[in-house]
Amino acid sequence: MKTIHAVFFTVLFGLTFGNCGVSKDGSHNRGILAMDLIVMSQPQALVYIANQGSGNFGVNVLQVSMTGAVSLLPGTSFGAIPGGLTATGIGSGHVLSTVKGANQVAILDARQGSSPLRMLSVGTNPNTIYVDPANTDHSWLLNDGNATGADPILCSATQGSFSVIHDTSDPVLLAHTHANLCVGKGPHDAASQTQDPKLAMVTNQGDNTVSVIDNSEDSPTFLSQTGGILNTIALASKPKGMVYSSLTNLFYTYLPASPGSIAVIDPTGNGNTGALGTPIASVGTTYSVLKSDTTGQFLILAGTDTSTSPNKGTLQIINVSTGVKTPITVGSTGFSDVQQSPDGKRLFVSTASTDASTSTNLMYVYDSSNLPSLNLLSTIPVGKAATTYRTFALNSTGNSVQNIFVPNFSDGTISVIDGKSYNVTNSFTVGGNPSLTTIFQQGSGSSSMNMGGMNGM
Fold this sequence. Notes:
A hairpin with a 6-residue loop joins strand 12 (187-192) and strand 13 (199-204). It contains three helices and 33 strands. Helices cover 8% and strands 45% of the residues. The protein is mainly β. The strands form eight sheets. Strands 16, 17, 18, 19 and 20 form a five-stranded antiparallel sheet that branches. It has a four-stranded antiparallel sheet with strand order 3-2-1-33. It comes from Leptospira fletcheri. This is Cell surface protein.
């Protein structure tokens, strides 16, 4: 497939030089008009939505045109529940969807039809998947494993696994498995260091550990089962989320056991194999999501206090340099995923809860330009999410958020929000229970599930 720029050049070359009888100004104007027409006909973004509930499995696709119009395209069904979802990082147009029941990952490209381009076999119960910011042609797929967190397909009864999917725009190779590595039980989140020694950390929720991985392409043990697993760090309780800050060159993971803490891991410690540092203590126990802000200066925790009915939405901003904590509680709701705008000025928060008396039909928008301070700017009415977790997708151009796409698990719909006015401009029925989202933009491989590296719930 020719790139858009190649098509532009071909059209302009033909119109400008193909007819010498046309004046320079006329030829130029015709070329500009043709280029404008081509630009307007191209999709600006493709939004993928995974349906995880009963009755309608698979992935739906919304197309955003260059004019901003949004339309529903044919989706695809796998006959099993999709898990994690991400647009790969090299601008190939490929989107990866894990398929839990089939122990596979589907390679999708809505521009080439509704059927998966390829199905790759991976480990047991593949779930979350992230683009590696250190090697953007790699996506890391965490296999949740069986009831104990072990993966008997790729490993043993005492080990879990993750797979690294290598994406390429080559029409024959497509995306393929680069490596499968056996780690601790129940690997669930990961983050990558973008500075030397370029390590990656994987949280293992089944045995309360973190696996330290050699993620340097220049290393002879890069992503190798033999020698590539550099260390296993024991934690005090089950880790949730993993983020890396390039500002401090440290990793952070949330330990929810009372009174709650943030474990800090120094990748340069223990001979560049990772070592625990001084934790951030007493952060609370109600959080399910850990993210970082765009600068790496602040950690952002979000979750739901289920000790009362209705529930309470909880947020906390932590300065990683000082350890100072700034908590926020909002009554009668439950907080789930958080994402910051590329310019750092807005923080978007989705709602979700399984408590029937708790409101889950709002999106919250905060002014985050002066963290740790958060000022509420808007509450946007959307559909309901009677579930434990709801994410959403930001469609951004440069630093500007154009649209917000919110899956409404309980209503089988997607709400489309204008990124400037915060008005709901459209709603699409997709069927099933839409849960996860990701965005492919022309010329890039952005993914709404990533913020500040590979991190999340």
